[in-house]
Amino acid sequence: MSMLTLHPMKEIRVIVAGEHRAFVTELFDKMNATGYTIIGNVSGKGHHGFREAHFMFSEQESLVIIMTVVPEQKVEPILAGLRPLFDRHSGVMFVTDVAVSRSEYFGTPADRS
Fold it and tell me: pTM score, two decimals?
């Protein structure tokens, strides 16, 4: 039985008001992230108090989590692109080490070298 080979990558997870979703996804697209996952209607508590999901109202009013997995060299440009958003609006971002089995799904060979 053959083992899966794991390749190191970085996960970027951004939690912002739904009205800023397009800013984040357009940045990920511009930086050639090969994909992202969006989880809407998120509740949570932070510096601005408790934010409850609004299932009956516009997604613009609730929090969203947008996450992507990219090669390490894409992290700094993405962080630089997110800075204007976080300079003006509330939100949080996490960057974590992850390992993927299908590295070709997360960037071009030049991205991984």
Answer: 0.83
What CATH code is carried by the domain that includes residue 82?
A: 3.30.70.120
Query: pLDDT by residue (tens digit) across 23-67?
Result: 999 999 999 999 999 998 887 777 767 666 555 455 556 889 999
- Secondary structure (3-state) at 33: coil
Total number of domains constituting the chain: 1
DSSP states along 73-110? GGHHHHHHHHHHHHHHS--EEEEEEEEES-GGGGS-HH
List, in sequence order, every residue forming a beta bridge with 10; answer none if it has no partner.
70, 97
Question: Is there a contact between 106 and 37 (Cβ–Cβ < 8 Å)?
Answer: no
For residue 79, the one-letter residue type is L
